Prior knowledge:
Growth Hormone, Chain: A; mainly alpha; 424 residues; 79% helix; 18 helices
Amino acid sequence: xxxxxxxxxxxxCFIAYGSEAIVxxxxxxxxxxxxxxxxxxxxxxxxLILANFATxxxxxxxxxxxxxxxxxxxxxxFSHICLASGLILLAVLPNVLANAYVGMLIAVMTYSVGSAxxxxxxxxxxxxxxxxxxxxxxxxxxxxxxWGQVVTILASSLAIGLIxxxxxxxxxxxxxxxxxxxxxxxxxxxxxxxxxxxxxxxxRGLFRSRLFLISLVLMLCAGxxxxxxxxxxxxxxxxxxxxxxxxxxLLGPCxxxxxxxxxRTWFGTFGEKLNLSKSLAxxxxxxxxxxxxxxxxxxxxxxxxxxxxxxxxVSIMWPGMFSLSAQLHxxxxxxxxxxxxxAGDVGCAVGPWVVGRVSDLSRQSGAVLDxxxxxxxxxxQAVLRFGLLVAVIFPxxxxxxIASLRRRALAPEYGVxxxxxxxx
Length: 424
């Protein structure tokens, strides 16, 4: 048998992110099916989403403390066992338990454990691998989540159309083969040992760093900006264009993910030749401009195109902040990546909630509805656009944070910074 190399390790990490994309994007495609077949309500669907986020949040905290002690190999193998088991349980339990919803909850919480551990560990594993192009490689790594999202939505939608919604349970069984294959990969690929305890930056020291605290805020904004557009584009397509859900999914989150994958792949190919902080600022500005266009464009198709192009704007936010934080805190270790992932997950939960909450509240505002009518928009379009308008606070805060990070990073007390090229 051929001896595994660091190239095999990198490919295993790519597949790990693809596996995360499968578990995070497959379930929403079944919401209508579950509602029709099992009679679950919208509130129960919302609780499934909450269970996913809550489980990942808790596991992120626990994993940050213990994965280095347990070992990266054992942790990643266990992660993929949970990912595969959760998908298999999703296919089996709703059909065999008296309460199908309980089966869904068990499945979601099982694969959420695996997803959280992978999110905490994959980035530091890749960061530790020897390379002269760490920033570009980090972006390429995260592009596999986007490509996984595109493939999951396209292949699953096509399969449901071919075999029928009644046989939905076959899809999780097939998708489970991906993390099962990666169990074998992580059992054999070489891994670079984590930074020893004596050399790692202490948790207290990390959280006392103003640069790191700013980075956490930027990660929250990055997660919020990405999820706002990812979660709301499907509904935006259905409401604004009057298309079916399948077409809405393809024109909305699938097209968004496609552009995000293109952006991350391009930066992963050419990123080492570019200035990281300047690229972050330019992409954030693009995301801001697209979000404003979504809100103000009078033609729904133009707004939808702007939704999709936001994918390019947000493409390097998450991986870029991982790389920038690693440069600023080279001894941050797994705890640093776990805290960043945790902040990003909080943003993923907060961003879409803000849009939904503001949209609901704006229904009571005659001014919003009147303005929408003047622009030729229906009431649903008007309130949804107003909710998205409020969400531009996230890319605005990110632009301000990048500027603040640059000013503080160039301060004399941060002697490490000249090596990271923050020139704007």
